[in-house]
Amino acid sequence: MFNISINTKMKNYLFSIYLLFSVPSALIAQQDSIMLDKIYEESLYRGEAYTNLHYLTKKIGHRIAGSAQAEEAVNWSKGLMEKLPFDRVYLQEVTVPYWDRGEKEVAKIVGSNESLAVLALGGSVATPKDGITAEVLEIENLSDLEKHGENVAGKIVFVNKPWDESIVETGVAYGLNSSQRSRGPSQAAKFGAVAYFFRSLSSSPDDAYPHTGGTGYTKGIDSIPAAAISAVSATKLSTTLKANPKLKVYFKQNSAWKGLVETHNVIAEWKGTDKPTDIITIGGHIDSWDVGEGAHDNGTGTMGTLDAMRTLMVLGYKPKHSIRLVFYMNEENGVQGAIKYGEEASQKKEHIVAAIESDAGGFAPRGFDIKASKEKVSWIQNNWKPLFEQKFWVSRFLEGSPGVDSGVWGRQFPNTIMFNFRPDPHRYFDLHHTEKDVFEAVDRRELQSGVAAIASLLYLLDQHMEEIQ
Amino acid sequence: MFNISINTKMKNYLFSIYLLFSVPSALIAQQDSIMLDKIYEESLYRGEAYTNLHYLTKKIGHRIAGSAQAEEAVNWSKGLMEKLPFDRVYLQEVTVPYWDRGEKEVAKIVGSNESLAVLALGGSVATPKDGITAEVLEIENLSDLEKHGENVAGKIVFVNKPWDESIVETGVAYGLNSSQRSRGPSQAAKFGAVAYFFRSLSSSPDDAYPHTGGTGYTKGIDSIPAAAISAVSATKLSTTLKANPKLKVYFKQNSAWKGLVETHNVIAEWKGTDKPTDIITIGGHIDSWDVGEGAHDNGTGTMGTLDAMRTLMVLGYKPKHSIRLVFYMNEENGVQGAIKYGEEASQKKEHIVAAIESDAGGFAPRGFDIKASKEKVSWIQNNWKPLFEQKFWVSRFLEGSPGVDSGVWGRQFPNTIMFNFRPDPHRYFDLHHTEKDVFEAVDRRELQSGVAAIASLLYLLDQHMEEIQ
């Protein structure tokens, strides 16, 4: 019936699923449970997210928006979608600012052989060509700048706020420190700092790798070069500063914005049978930072949501609502893909009833954060959680925030129910935005178990969207 | 107050905890929540399970019961316990049969260069000194032996039942196949087989490592040599057999039982203030298989339960009930440690009110299986799950089986409430009983998060044991 290979075992399923969709409503819960079994069986045995992720990470590699690799990922993804029985696969034009890291950054304590592991923050300007040599002012919070006043001028401001290791939900710990990354350089420059070092947002104090991430500059204030420094190097620098507060650090990087680049979101549509103009959007961002391989952030999210749709297709499912897969460009440094998606959908007055985003890694699936009224969240907990909890170890269905991309375009769609896929949070911020975020850090069973959870949610949403209340 | 180092931050806690235990009962739930915060903070910042695990795995290594390493682990563990303010630390004598693998096993397809990755099953006899060369009969289930009848004689029986990859709870998939490991050699020998190959109990079909595990022989039937064959080698052998059913395999191993050895359980007791004769037993097995480093099985269980107790101690907690930490010897091939523990406790008519066991790895904690009445499980779900679920991502409190050791001694204590710690199940059976079960496969945050979950449960049990109904 459609253009994908189906083995014999699957043919038997197709028949049983045909039966499944023709039985009376009293058996719906049992039908759902049987369908979830099929989904898990398909994903765990024959899932393709892991092998696709291998190609994305090893053949294409990291892919910052605007780079040649990002566009290669766009075209290759489009090709993957075209092999599946979508009704339409297309690119949506997105203009992104392209930032290039340039040569490897250099930082060292002057007069010693101590190298500091640093990585330019995304969006940072370069140092002067010959680098900067300056004293260092260590603070824990940006708010400490005030009290140092004139003492800041001419120095490298070094924000060394430790990660709160006690928080199991590592995303919360990330949130506690991340605003100092985005706002730090301009705050420090206001006081005359010449550069900005930011202790990496890593969940491990023993982490030798710097974690990059976006920063920005406030108009009217000098843009100063900014870099993340690894937890280990931050501790080393802090210790050395205690012994010698007048030490100087040499710092050089030549990152720069390189102008605007035309690139794309990748979109595939699977038309609904009953309500074709009611759209469920699913996806994640296809770009990554320019280090590592963008495996957990966000190769798993894109390859996972694509494989969730493949899973339903190969099971012979026909959606009631239209399901639209979106690979957003530029989540990491500008969110231009999500902005464009929202603008177009809004102009067309589209009816996006629900959204699922995956952008928190490919670890063992734990559940979904839900942006909806308390009543709706409660309905989902009562009706859907029992289908997942005991058998599939997915039990977290809590009110929460949408993913970054859905959150951005969702400003124009305030009534859309949004689901943010939540894999286990323990390991994510050891890898996030670093050289360590590679294919080898992804476990196949964990990834495909997550794909099954996402496909199951998508199925339930499509079947029961109108019942949620 | 006691013999462990306490930093300044902890001193502040001790005072707040002193206050905590002197407030009226209306605030109990809030007290519990605050105590759990302290426990997680201590474990995630200053937990010692991970560093102790490093010593156990790297300095002592694997430690099959009866080996010198197992006894080294016993004595080293006793030393660890003696550094903490237990009231009593002692060894309990256990006699175990010692099985030795001998030289590296050899298996190859005769006339080819194809080596097969095999590992003697624990308890297996040796092949004749010069090995066995025989044809191979591949079956999927032991029950297939009957229909092959006389055709079995003189052959190597090769049970190639694939792992059910669709089951998220991998322990269930393990259970579906494991009886063929324990009963297989004698069943095959009854039909005249000369050796037994068993497809490894691995959750990955791409696994190149064989997984060992215990087997046994039925009295009155010849004991034939038995080995696990890796999933990859099993598939290779199966494919080659299809092309050439008459192929012969050469197989040699010289494993053997080496008689009885006197060894020990390691036990530490922390006396209760209110009900010193009511005992909560906590622990896991200290032995491992003789490959890899016994990291997830069960270095994490022993070092984790010890660290859970250290956590409560360092927080200044004083238990109401006596808490007894037990490191059981010989869980892997004989369960003699648990048998001895049960016998002695039973002879002394001890009152063991509850038990916690950790023997399912050191992955992200998901919850506890509970052996208790439905009513009690339900009470625990209602009262304790909310303390863990949202903040600490621990949400699985289901009726279930105890761990192997508690299950064994628990036959004499049918009324003891038993908790079986459940970490995430996705990765365990990729590593279990193989060369891959090493320290590097353990993540510090996941392990210490599990320690905190166990310490929290232990605290709640001690505080509210008598309220469970």
TrEMBL record, chains A, B:
Domain of life: Bacteria
Stored InterPro entries: CPQ, Peptidase_M28
Signal peptide residues on this chain, from the entry's feature table: 1-28
Gene Ontology cellular-component annotations: extracellular region; lysosome
Residue span(s) of domain Peptidase M28: 265-452
Subcellular location: Endoplasmic reticulum; Golgi apparatus; Lysosome; Secreted
Gene3D superfamilies in the cross-refs: 3.50.30.30, Zn peptidases
An individual GO BP term: proteolysis
Keywords, in A-Z order: Carboxypeptidase, Endoplasmic reticulum, Glycoprotein, Golgi apparatus, Hydrolase, Lysosome, Metal-binding, Metalloprotease, Protease, Secreted, Signal, Zinc, Zymogen
The protein's assembly and partners: Homodimer. The monomeric form is inactive while the homodimer is active.
Protein name: Carboxypeptidase Q
